[in-house]
Amino acid sequence: MKGLWQVLPMYPLFCAIFFIFLYSQPCASTSKNLSCNSNDLRALEDFSNGLDSRIDGWKFHDALAANCCSWPGVRCALFSVFSSSFSINSTDPSLRVVSLDLASTGLEGLLWNSLLGLDQLSFLNLSHNSLRGTVPPELFHLRRLEVLDLKSNNFTGELDQGISNLTSLSYIDVSFNRFTGFIPDSFHGLQRLESFSAESNCLEGRLPNSLSSCSMLSLLNLRNNSLDGNIDLNFASLVQLVVLNLGSNRFSGHIPKSLSSCRALQVLNLASNNLHGKIPKSFRNLQALSYLSVSKNSLSNVSVALQTLQECQNLTVLILTRNFYGEELPNNGIQGFHSLQALVVADCPLTGSIPSWLANIKELSLLDLSWNHLTGGIPLCIRSLDYLFYLDLSNNSLTGEIPMSLTKLKTLNSDSLSHNGSSSHGIPFFSWKNPTRLLWYKQYINFPPTVDLSNNMMDGTIWKEIGNLRLLQVLDLSKNNFTGSIPDELSGLRNLETLDLSFNGLSGTIPASLVNLTFLSSFNVAHNHLQGQIPKGGQFSTFSSSSFEGNPGLCGEFFLVCYSTSKPPEEEENDREESNVVLEGLPLAMGFISGLLLIVILVILPLLKQG
Ligand SMILES: *[C@@H]1O[C@H](CO)[C@@H](O)[C@H](O)[C@H]1NC(C)=O
Ligand SMILES: *[C@@H]1O[C@H](CO)[C@@H](O)[C@H](O)[C@H]1NC(C)=O
Ligand SMILES: *[C@@H]1O[C@H](CO)[C@@H](O)[C@H](O)[C@H]1NC(C)=O
Ligand SMILES: *[C@@H]1O[C@H](CO)[C@@H](O)[C@H](O)[C@H]1NC(C)=O
Ligand SMILES: *[C@@H]1O[C@H](CO)[C@@H](O)[C@H](O)[C@H]1NC(C)=O
Ligand SMILES: *[C@@H]1O[C@H](CO)[C@@H](O)[C@H](O)[C@H]1NC(C)=O
Ligand SMILES: *[C@@H]1O[C@H](CO)[C@@H](O)[C@H](O)[C@H]1NC(C)=O
Ligand SMILES: *[C@@H]1O[C@H](CO)[C@@H](O)[C@H](O)[C@H]1NC(C)=O
Ligand SMILES: *[C@@H]1O[C@H](CO)[C@@H](O)[C@H](O)[C@H]1NC(C)=O
Ligand SMILES: *[C@@H]1O[C@H](CO)[C@@H](O)[C@H](O)[C@H]1NC(C)=O
Ligand SMILES: *[C@@H]1O[C@H](CO)[C@@H](O)[C@H](O)[C@H]1NC(C)=O
Ligand SMILES: *[C@@H]1O[C@H](CO)[C@@H](O)[C@H](O)[C@H]1NC(C)=O
C-alpha cells in the first residue's frame, strides 16, 4: 500500500540530484572540455575485461568517444575533492562516475576487484544478469555506496563482512543468488540502511543481532533461506520497520512480543517456520498491519489469535493455515474485523462450526476454511458478505442443504469484481492445496471466483438459482449427498471453467444447454444416477469417459448407444445412423436366423433322416 513507497525516502532525492547534474553536463563539458576521470575509465575497462560478455556502447579504444560519462548505464557528476557532497564549485572539475546501472543487460562472467577505482560510486545496479563467482571484497571498499543491487544473478560464496565499511548504504538487495553461510553480524555501522533483501539464497545460521542497530530499517526480507534460531532482534529499536518477511526458514521459538513496538509494520510474513506458542496479545497495537501470514507453523490457541487480531483495524489479509492443531473455531468473542478481505484458516484441522461472526466482516472477499473438521450447516448470514467471490469450505463435515442465500451473493451475481482487492505486497499468494502445481498469484484478487463445497456431507438439491452466480469460474459440489437433477439454469454460469458434481446422488439427464458453456474445460458428473444422452458439441467433445463413468443410465459417446426417443431435433440426424444399425438391423438378423432354421428343417433334416 501507499506506505511501501516510503520505504526509500532518500532515493528520490538522490535521483533528483542526478537529474540536475545530467542536465547541466552538456553545458559544463563544452565550456571546460570535461572528460571522465582517467582512473574511473581504467576501472571500467578492467571491469569490462573481466566479463565474458561485451557491454554495448562502451568504446575504450575510440579516443573521441572515451568520455565514459556518456556511455550506457554510466552517470557522472562533477565532484569536489574538498567537499564530500556534489558541487560544481570544485578545484578539480573532473567528472567522476557516481552511478553504474547495468541491470538486465545480459552481463555474464565474474566480477573482478576492478570496480575498486570507482571511489565516488554511490549507485550500483547489476541485477538480473548472469554474473557468477564470489563478490570481491573490494566491492565493500566503495565507501560511498548508497545503493547496491545484485539481485537475480548467480553469485556464490558468503556475504562479506566488509559490508560494515559501507556506512552510507541505504539499500542492499542480494536476493535470488546462491549465497551460502551466515549473514555477517556487521551491520552496526550501517545507520542509514533502509532496505535489506537476501531472499531465496542458501543462507543459514541466526539473524545477525547487529541488524537491531539499523534504526532506519524499513524493509527486511530474508524469505526462503535456511535461517534458524529465535527471531530475537531488538524490535523496539526498529521503529521504522514496514515490511518484515522471514517466511520459509527454520526459525523456532515464540513470535516475539517486541514486534508490536514496530507501529509502522504493514507486512509480516512468518509462514513456514517452526514457531510455536500464541500470537502475542500485544499485536493488537499493530494498527498499520495490513498483511499477516503465520501459516505452516505450530501455533496454538486460535481464539486468542482471532480475538487479538480483530483489533488490528487495517488488517486486510490474514493467513493462519496449518496451526492450532485440533482446536475449536470459536463462535463467540469475535465482533468482526474492520478491514479484513481475505481470511484463510485451512488444514488445521479445526472442530466446531462455521461461525456467524463471519457475517460481520463486511469487506470479506475470500474465505478459505477447507480441510478442517467443521460440522453443522452453512449459516444463512453468509448472504451479507457483499464482496465474497471465493468460498472454499471443502473437505469438512458440513451437513444440511445449500442455503438459498448463497445464491444471492452480490459479487458473484454481478459481472465483475466490485473490489480491487489489496495487493499482497510482493509476497506471492498461492493456492496451497495442490503442491504439485503451485499457483502463485500476485494478489488474492487474481484467484478465480469459486464456490467449493466438495467433500462434505451436504444433501438436498442443487438450486436452479445457482445459475445466477454468473461470475463463477469454479463450482465444485462433488462428494456430497446432493439429489435431484442438474438444473438447466447452470448454463447461465457463462464464465464457468470447472464444474464438478461427481459422487452425489444426482438423477435425471445432463442438460443439453451445458454445451453453451464455452469456457468449460473441466467437467465431472461421474458416480451419480444420471441417465439419457450425453450432450454433444461444444466443450463436451473434449471430455473423456472418466467425466461420466459410474452412471449406468448414461448413453452416447463412450457408452451404450441410446435407445431413448426423446432427443433434441438437431441431434436426431447424427444419431440415426448409429441407432439404425441396431434398430433396423434387428429385424434383418431375426429374418436371417429364421431363414436358416427353415433351411435346416426343410432341407437338412430330411437329408439326415434319409442318411
Ligand atoms: C579536450 O578533449 C579532447 C578529447 O578528449 C582532448 O584531445 C583535448 O586535449 C582536450 N582539450 C583540453 C583543453 O583539455
Ligand atoms: C567556491 O570556491 C571558492 C574558491 O575556491 C571558495 O572560496 C568558495 O567558498 C567556494 N564556495 C562553495 C559554496 O563551496
Ligand atoms: C535495478 O534495476 C532493476 C531492473 O531495471 C530495477 O527493477 C530495480 O528497481 C533497480 N534497483 C534499484 C535499487 O533501483
Ligand atoms: C546459474 O547457474 C546455473 C548452473 O550453473 C545455470 O543453470 C543457470 O542458468 C544460471 N542462472 C543464471 C541466471 O545465470
Ligand atoms: C574496510 O575498508 C578498508 C579500506 O577501505 C579495508 O582496509 C578494511 O579491510 C575494510 N574492512 C573490512 C572488514 O573489510
Ligand atoms: C527458494 O530458493 C531457492 C534457491 O535457494 C529457489 O530455487 C526457489 O525457487 C525459491 N523458492 C521460492 C518459492 O521462491
Ligand atoms: C490504515 O489504512 C489507511 C488507508 O490505507 C491509512 O490511511 C491509515 O494511515 C492506516 N493506519 C495506520 C495506523 O497506518
Ligand atoms: C486460549 O487462551 C485462553 C486465554 O489465555 C484460555 O482461556 C483458553 O483456554 C486457551 N484455549 C486453548 C484451546 O488453549
Ligand atoms: C482432507 O483433509 C485432510 C486433512 O484434514 C487431508 O489429509 C486429506 O488429504 C484431505 N482430502 C482431500 C480429498 O482433499
Ligand atoms: C480499481 O482498478 C481499476 C482498474 O484497474 C482502477 O481504474 C480503479 O481506480 C481502481 N479502484 C480502486 C478503488 O482502487
Ligand atoms: C445420503 O442420504 C441418504 C438418504 O438420506 C442416506 O441414507 C445416506 O446415508 C446418505 N449418505 C451419505 C454418505 O451421507
Ligand atoms: C445455446 O444458447 C443459444 C443462445 O442463447 C440458444 O439459442 C440455444 O438454445 C442454446 N443451446 C442449448 C442446447 O441450450
CATH superfamily annotation of the domain at 1-155:
Ribonuclease Inhibitor
Low-confidence region ranges: 1-33, 87-92, 435-440, 565-589
Q: Count of DSSP E strands?
A: 36
Multimeric state:
single chain
- CATH top-level class of the domain at 1-155: Alpha Beta
Question: Could you explain how this protein is built, in words?
Answer:
There is one protein chain. This protein has 611 residues and is α/β, with parallel strands linked by helices. Among the domains are: 1-155, Alpha-Beta Horseshoe (Leucine-rich repeat, LRR (right-handed beta-alpha superhelix)), CATH 3.80.10; 461-555, Alpha-Beta Horseshoe (Leucine-rich repeat, LRR (right-handed beta-alpha superhelix)), CATH 3.80.10. It is 14% helix and 19% strand. The strands form seven sheets. It has an 18-stranded mixed beta sheet. The structure holds 2-acetamido-2-deoxy-beta-D-glucopyranose (NAG) (12 copies). One 2-acetamido-2-deoxy-beta-D-glucopyranose binds next to loops.
Write the SSE topology.
Layout: H1 10-32, H2 38-50, E1 74-78, E2 95-101, E3 108-110, E4 123-125, E5 130-133, E6 147-149, E7 154-155, E8 171-173, E9 180-182, E10 195-197, E11 202-205, E12 219-221, E13 226-229, E14 243-245, E15 250-253, E16 267-269, E17 274-277, E18 291-293, E19 298-299, H3 302-309, E20 317-319, E21 342-344, E22 366-368, E23 375-376, E24 390-392, E25 397-398, E26 429-431, E27 439-441, E28 450-452, E29 459-461, E30 474-476, E31 481-483, E32 498-500, E33 507-508, E34 522-524, E35 529-533, E36 553-555, H4 569-583, H5 585-610
Parallel strand pairs: 2-4, 3-5, 4-6, 5-7, 6-8, 8-10, 9-11, 10-12, 11-13, 12-14, 13-15, 14-16, 15-17, 16-18, 17-19, 18-20, 20-21, 21-22, 22-24, 23-25, 24-28, 28-30, 29-31, 30-32, 32-34, 33-35, 35-36
Antiparallel strand pairs: 1-2, 26-27
The protein binds 2-acetamido-2-deoxy-beta-D-glucopyranose (12 copies).
One 2-acetamido-2-deoxy-beta-D-glucopyranose binds at residues 512-513, 515-516.
Subcellular location: Cell membrane
Family: Belongs to the RLP family.
InterPro entries: Leu-rich_rpt, Leu-rich_rpt_typical-subtyp, LRR_dom_sf, LRR_N_plant-typ
